Amino acid sequence: MKVIGVIPSRYDSSRFPGKPLIDLDGKSMIQRVYEGAMRSLKIDKLVVATDHQRIVDEVESFGGNVMMTSSSHISGTERCIEVAEKHDDFDVLINIQGDEPLVDVAQIEQLIDAFDEDQVQIATLASKKISSIELSNPNRIKVITDAQSNALYFSRSVIPNNSKQDKIYSYLKHIGLYAFTKQSLNRISSMTSCEIERAESLEQLRWMYHGEKIRVVQTTIETPNIDVPEDVEKVLSLLRK
Prior knowledge:
It contains nine helices and eleven strands. It is an alpha/beta fold.
């Protein structure tokens, strides 16, 4: 099984412009993500997919592979699809988040291992470690699964409904790392949007609506991301430990 890793890296983030190039204790964030992912022995090729020349220059400066992609993409998945169209020699593509400078190789390899089962076409991660605050936070995505660990639904709301307080349920928090077979990416590339996707603002619901199954792999590992400038100090404190 040949695996290509793609790190989507957008320059003009609305909440944190230029985020991939911020300095994190002597290295840019994109360099830290790239070097972290490169520690995986299961990734055969790693590519940064960006929309900005400054990120191209930065990746080339530390010897990484980088590809300029369209500025019209609205999701990291769309950038991955463009990379896949130019790199045909892979079986599985893993979408590595470009705002997690402490990316953990064990997470990446857990996800790749899901494809040892031939029927798995798309895989993602989830964790049972979820606080009551996260449970009610619409920015923390929840997921429920079936008996085969395939996703039944993703939501910003609490699922299943917790109105019966006497019932105990192990809620799952989605961790937005995805991997795809080449065939599933081809199918996704031509899918049209649907109402549940727009209602939740979650692109994975489009794939499920059109018939794709998403294997949910449980992990105990979660690394902090940098979403807004206030997150930088938290990551720096962990880097310096």
